[in-house]
Amino acid sequence: MTAHQPMSGTWLCVGCSLPWPCPSRRRQLLAQYTDAPVSLALVLGSAMIEAAADLRSVPAGDLHEQFVGWLPHDHPDFVGP
After folding, report:
1. Residue 7 confidence class, pLDDT cut points 50, 70, 90
2. Largest Cα–Cα distance in the chain?
3. Contact, 15 vs 24, CB < 8 A?
4. 3-class SS at 12?
5. In whole angstroms, how far apart are CA 11 and each of 21, 35, 37, 53, 78?
6. Which of 2, 6, 48, 69 pairs as cysteine with 65 (C-beta 3.0–4.6 A)?
7. How many CA atoms lie within 13 A of 64 on its CB side?
């Protein structure tokens, strides 16, 4: 198990105190979900919804960038018809 997990309530990384997912966890997630980018987007989208309940003062756009805005957009699964 990775040390780069979110701290309950704050959504800061337990391992490095950066906003979660931190750069280390992002690399791990991209490697873990290499063949399943849509699943990764769903996992992170769910985490973003949970975080929104805890981080009510954080603008939605900032949460989007933190949780899913950094995902690569050039994967074939994300390209429209």
Report:
1. very high
2. 40
3. yes
4. strand
5. 8, 26, 22, 11, 27
6. 69
7. 4
